[in-house]
C-alpha cells in the first residue's frame, strides 16, 4: 500500500499523469485502497488535469466514508470555491483547518483561486449513462448557447467518452447501502443545478428512489430514451418484419416507463420509432434528432483502389452481424475487397478506421438509423442500413442511406461493389444530411428551448 502511495505522489510531482492514473487503478484493483489518501490522490490528479468537478466527486466519495479527515475537508473547501459552491466551502475549510501543515501528502495543487459561474445561466446536469457520446455532445452545444451544462457518468466503458463527473458503478450492485449513498449524492448535487436531464432510464440511484427527492425539491426533470431501454418487440414487429430487440422482458420495460413517468413528465426521443414506445407514458414527448459536433468529422470522399467495407458490431444480434459476415464471405469469392470488423477500441480509434472506409454497414434489424450512421454520413461515407417502410415515411425524404435487410444484404453489397462510381455522390448527400438534421449547435438549441419551457412553467 505504501508503495502505491509513494509512487503516485512521485508521479504527480513529476507530472506523469498517465502513470499516476495507472497506479491509482492498480491500487484500487489491489483492494487495499479504502482509505482517505486514495480519495485525496484521485482528487489531486483530477485537479492537475483541470477536472475540478470530478475532483469534487472524488472528495465527496472520500468524505462520505471519512467525514472528519482534515486533508479531504481542506481540499474539498478549495475545490468548492473553484466549482461555484462558495456556500459549502466555508464548512469544509473550517473542518480542514491545519490539515495542510499536518498532511504527509505534500502536493502543490493549483486550487487557491476562486471561480464565479456567470450569473443568469441555466445550470443543467445530465446523467447517468453516456450513450454514443450524446451527453457530452449536448453539453458542448448547450454551453455554446450560454447554459452551464455538466455530465455525470456511472458507466465508463472502453469507448472513453468524456464526462465532468465519473463514478464507475459497473461492478456495483443495486443494494440499500449503495442507494443510500447515491441519494446523499443527489441531495448534495441539488443546490448546484436548476434542471436534471437523465438518459436511458437512469437516475442518481440504482433503484429510482431519488426521483421523489428531486420532485419534492421542485427541480424539473427530463428523461431521454435511446433504444433498448424502451424498445418493445410487440410494437416494433407491427411495422418491421426483421424486428430484433435486445431486451425481451416487456413487462420490465413497461414497469420502468410507468414508474419513471410518475415523476418525470417530459421525455426526449430521437425519432418516431422510439416515440411509439413512450407516447402512452409521458405527458410531453419531444422529438429531437441525435447530434454530433460536425467540425470533428472531416468528410473524405476519396476511394481506395481496393474497397474497404467496415462494420462495427457493438450489439451483434441487433446489428445483424452474422448476416453481414455471411454475405461478406460469399462475396469474397467473386470480388476483391477489404473488410474490417471494428470492436473493442476507443471512439477516437474507431473514427480513424471509419475515415478510411469506402462503405459502412450499420444494422439490419431495428429499421431506424442511429449515431453510427450519423457519424458515418458526416464523414462522407455511404452507409448500408435497414430502414423500415414505416420509418422511411417519417424520415426526411432526402435520407441517403442504402437500404438493406437480412434477406438481401448480399445483393445490396454486390450492387455497391459493381457500381462504386455512385459512392462519392451518396457520401456528399450524407454529409449534407448530417449538417441539416444532426448539427450539435442546432439540436442543442432545440433542447435548450425545452429546458426553458420547463423552468418558466
Polypeptide structure, described:
- Residues 329-432 form the Glycosyl transferase family domain.
- This is Glycosyltransferase.
- GO terms for molecular function: glycosyltransferase activity.
- By secondary structure, this protein is an alpha/beta fold.
- It has three domains: 2-102, Serine Threonine Protein Phosphatase 5, Tetratricopeptide repeat; 123-291 and 441-456, Rossmann fold (3-Layer(aba) Sandwich); 294-438, Rossmann fold, CATH 3.40.50.
- It has 21 helices and twelve strands.
- The strands form two sheets. A seven-stranded parallel beta sheet has the order 3-2-1-4-5-6-7, sandwiched between helices. It has a five-stranded parallel beta sheet with strand order 9-8-10-11-12, with helices on both faces.
- Strand 1 (123-128), helix 8 (134-144) and strand 2 form a beta-alpha-beta unit.
- Helix 1 runs parallel beside helix 3 (36-48).
- The chain starts with a helix and ends with a helix.
- The model has no long low-confidence stretch (mean pLDDT 94).
Amino acid at each position: 500500500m505504501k508503495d502505491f502511495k509513494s509512487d503516485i505522489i512521485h508521479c504527480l510531482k513529476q507530472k506523469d499523469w498517465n502513470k499516476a492514473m495507472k497506479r491509482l487503478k492498480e491500487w484500487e484493483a489491489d483492494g487495499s485502497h479504502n482509505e482517505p489518501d486514495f480519495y485525496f490522490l484521485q482528487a489531486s490528479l483530477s485537479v492537475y488535469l483541470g477536472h475540478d468537478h470530478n475532483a469534487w466527486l472524488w472528495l465527496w466519495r472520500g468524505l462520505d466514508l471519512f467525514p472528519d479527515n482534515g486533508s479531504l475537508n481542506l481540499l474539498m473547501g478549495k475545490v468548492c470555491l473553484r466549482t461555484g459552491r462558495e456556500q459549502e466551502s466555508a464548512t469544509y475549510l473550517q473542518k480542514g483547518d491545519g490539515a495542510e501543515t499536518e498532511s504527509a501528502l505534500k502536493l502543490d495543487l493549483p486550487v487557491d483561486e476562486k471561480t464565479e459561474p456567470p450569473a443568469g445561466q441555466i445550470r443543467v446536469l445530465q446523467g447517468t449513462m453516456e450513450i454514443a457520446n450524446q451527453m457530452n455532445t449536448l453539453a458542448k452545444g448547450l454551453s455554446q448557447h450560454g447554459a452551464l451544462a455538466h455530465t455525470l457518468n456511472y458507466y465508463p466503458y472502453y469507448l472513453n467518452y468524456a464526462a465532468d463527473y465519473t463514478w464507475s458503478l459497473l461492478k456495483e450492485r443495486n443494494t440499500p447501502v449503495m442507494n443510500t449513498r447515491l441519494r446523499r449524492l443527489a441531495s448534495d448535487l441539488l443546490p448546484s443545478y436548476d434542471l436534471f436531464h437523465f438518459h436511458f432510464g437512469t437516475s442518481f440511484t440504482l433503484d429510482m428512489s431519488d426521483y421523489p427527492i428531486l420532485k419534492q425539491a421542485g427541480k424539473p426533470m427530463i428523461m431521454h430514451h435511446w433504444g433498448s431501454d424502451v424498445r418493445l418487440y410487440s410494437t416494433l414487429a407491427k411495422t418491421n418484419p426483421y424486428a430484433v430487440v435486445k431486451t425481451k422482458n416487456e413487462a420490465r420495460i413497461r414497469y420502468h416507463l410507468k414508474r419513471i413517468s410518475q415523476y418525470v413528465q417530459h421525455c426526449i426521443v430521437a425519432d418516431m420509432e422510439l416515440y411509439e414506445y413512450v407516447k402512452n407514458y409521458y405527458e410531453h414527448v419531444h422529438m429531437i434528432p441525435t447530434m454530433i459536433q460536425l467540425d470533428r468529422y472531416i468528410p473524405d470522399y476519396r476511394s481506395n483502389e481496393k474497397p474497404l467495407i467496415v462494420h462495427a458490431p457493438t450489439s451483434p444480434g441487433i446489428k445483424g452481424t452474422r448476416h453481414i459476415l455471411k454475405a461478406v464471405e460469399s462475396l469474397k469469392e467473386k470480388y476483391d475487397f477489404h473488410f474490417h470488423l471494428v470492436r473493442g477500441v476507443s471512439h477516437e480509434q474507431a473514427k480513424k478506421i471509419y475515415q478510411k472506409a469506402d462503405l459502412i454497414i450499420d444494422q439490419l434489424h431495428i429499421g431506424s438509423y442511429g449515431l453510427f450512421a450519423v457519424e458515418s454520413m458526416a464523414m462522407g461515407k455511404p452507409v448500408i442500413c435497414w430502414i423500415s417502410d414505416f420509418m422511411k415515411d417519417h424520415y426526411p425524404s432526402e435520407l441517403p442511406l442504402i437500404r438493406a435487410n437480412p434477406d438481401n444484404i448480399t445483393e445490396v453489397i454486390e450492387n455497391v461493389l459493381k457500381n462504386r462510381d455512385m459512392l462519392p455522390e451518396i457520401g456528399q448527400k450524407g454529409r449534407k444530411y448530417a449538417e441539416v438534421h444532426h448539427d450539435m449547435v442546432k439540436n442543442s438549441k432545440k433542447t435548450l428551448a425545452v429546458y426553458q419551457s420547463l423552468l418558466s412553467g
